[in-house]
C-alpha cells in the first residue's frame, strides 16, 4: 500500500533510486507521531524493490516487495531498542551483517528512534557511516535530532517530515478504517500529526471536553465561567486539549473577522463563531490567544495549576 503524504521526500528517493544517485545514510526527523518509522519502512521497501522500471516504487508485486511485506526480506535489517537503549551489541550485529555482500541489489538498515543509541553505540556506528559499502543504505529515525552526536549528524542527510494536510489525515484514517466525517475540527487540532489525530479520536472524553469548552466561550456568563473553572480544576488531564480547543475557536473568530469563513477549524459551530466575532474586537481576541500561549509556556516552567486555570477562565 502507498504511503500517504511526505511526497517531496518520497519523490527524492524515487528519483535517487532511478538514477542510482543516492547517498548512503539518512535521518528522518519530525515530531513523535508524524510517521517517521512507517516512512522509513516504505522507503526501505522502495530501495529493495527489484522492478526499478515500475511507474510506482515500490511496485508491491515483485518477490522483494512480497517478502518485505511478510517481514522476511533478507536484505532488510531493523534495529530498535528492546528495552530503553539501543546498545553497542546491536550496532556490532549491524556491522557484521553489512560486511556481507547481498546476492543482488541493496541492503537496507533502519535504526528506529536513533536517539536511543548509547554514546558507545553511536561511536561504534561512526566508522560505518563514514565508509559504508556501496550496496548499503542506512536510515535513522528520530524525534530528537539534536540529541544525536554531532559526528553522527554530520554524516547523515537529514529529511524533515512535514505535517499532513487535513486531506491526507482523512486518507490515512480511511486506510485504517476510521471514519472522520464531521470530525474535521479534531483533525485540525492534531496540527497535522497523524499520531495525535488518532490519539484524539480514541480519547473518549474529547467530545465532552469540547462541549464544555464551547459552552464556556459562547455562553459568557459568570456561572458558566465558574463552572468551567471548576471543570478544569478537577480534570487536569483535559487541560492541554481544552486550551487547544479554546485557541482554535479564537483563531476561527479572527478568521471570521477577516471574512475568511471557509477556513474555519470548528466549521460545525460557524454560527456561534460569527456571533462571537461580532461581539469581540480583534484586539480582545488576540489578547486571549496570547494569554493561552503564555500559560502554556509557564506551565512548562511549573506554573501553579490552579493559577493557570484561573488565568485562562477569566478570559
Ligand atoms: Zn517491487
Compact summary:
The chain is of the alpha/beta class and 315 residues long. The protein has 15 helices and five strands.
Structure description:
The chain is of the alpha/beta class. The protein is built from 15 helices and five strands. The chain folds into two domains: 7-162, Rossmann fold (3-Layer(aba) Sandwich); 203-313. The chain is elongated and about 75 Å long. It has helices spanning 7-19, 36-48, 63-69, 88-98, 119-130, 150-153, 166-175, 184-189, 194-202, 206-218, 222-234, 239-257, 270-279, 282-300, 305-313, and strands spanning 25-29, 76-79, 107-111, 136-142, 157-160. Zinc ion (ZN) binds at residues 49-51, 58-59, 61-62, 64-65.
State the main characteristics.
15 helices; 53% helix; 315 residues; Rossmann fold; 2 domains; binds zinc ion; alpha/beta; 5-stranded parallel β-sheet; single chain
Amino acid at each position: 500500500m502507498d504511503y500517504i503524504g511526505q511526497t517531496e521526500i518520497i519523490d527524492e528517493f524515487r528519483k535517487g533510486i532511478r538514477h542510482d544517485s543516492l547517498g548512503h545514510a539518512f535521518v528522518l526527523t519530525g515530531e513523535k507521531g508524524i510517521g517517521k518509522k512507517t516512512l522509513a519502512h516504505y522507503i526501505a521497501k522502495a530501495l529493495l524493490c527489484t522492478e526499478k522500471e515500475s511507474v510506482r516504487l515500490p511496485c508491491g508485486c515483485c518477490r522483494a516487495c512480497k517478502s518485505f511485506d511478510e517481514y522476511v526480506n533478507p536484505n532488510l535489517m531493523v534495529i530498535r531498542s528492546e528495552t530503553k537503549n539501543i546498545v553497542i551489541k546491536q550496532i556490532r550485529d549491524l556491522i557484521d551483517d553489512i560486511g556481507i555482500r547481498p546476492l543482488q541489489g541493496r541492503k537496507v538498515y533502519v535504526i528506529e528512534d536513533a536517539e536511543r543509541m548509547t554514546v558507545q553505540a553511536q561511536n561504534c556506528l561512526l566508522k560505518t557511516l563514514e565508509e559504508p559499502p556501496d550496496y548499503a543504505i542506512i536510515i535513522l529515525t528520530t524525534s530528537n535530532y539534536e540529541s544525536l552526536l554531532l559526528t553522527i549528524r554530520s554524516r547523515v542527510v537529514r529529511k524533515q517530515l512535514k505535517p499532513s494536510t487535513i486531506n491526507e489525515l482523512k486518507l490515512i484514517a480511511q486506510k485504517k478504517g476510521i471514519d472522520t466525517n464531521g470530525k474535521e475540527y479534531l483533525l485540525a487540532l492534531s496540527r497535522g500529526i497523524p499520531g495525535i489525530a488518532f490519539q484524539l479520536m480514541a480519547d473518549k472524553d474529547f467530545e465532552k471536553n469540547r462541549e464544555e469548552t464551547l459552552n464556556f466561550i459562547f455562553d459568557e456568563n459568570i456561572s458558566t465561567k465558574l463552572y468551567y473553572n471548576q471543570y478544569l480544576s478537577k480534570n487536569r488531564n483535559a487541560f492541554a486539549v481544552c486550551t487547544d480547543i479554546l485557541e482554535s475557536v479564537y483563531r476561527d473568530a479572527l478568521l471570521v473577522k477577516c471574512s475568511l469563513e471557509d477556513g474555519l477549524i470548528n466549521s460545525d459551530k460557524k454560527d456561534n463563531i460569527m456571533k462571537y466575532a461580532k461581539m469581540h474586537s480583534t484586539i480582545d481576541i488576540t489578547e486571549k490567544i496570547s494569554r493561552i500561549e503564555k500559560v502554556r509556556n509557564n506551565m512548562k516552567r511549573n506554573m501553579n495549576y490552579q493559577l493557570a486555570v484561573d488565568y485562562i477562565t477569566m478570559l
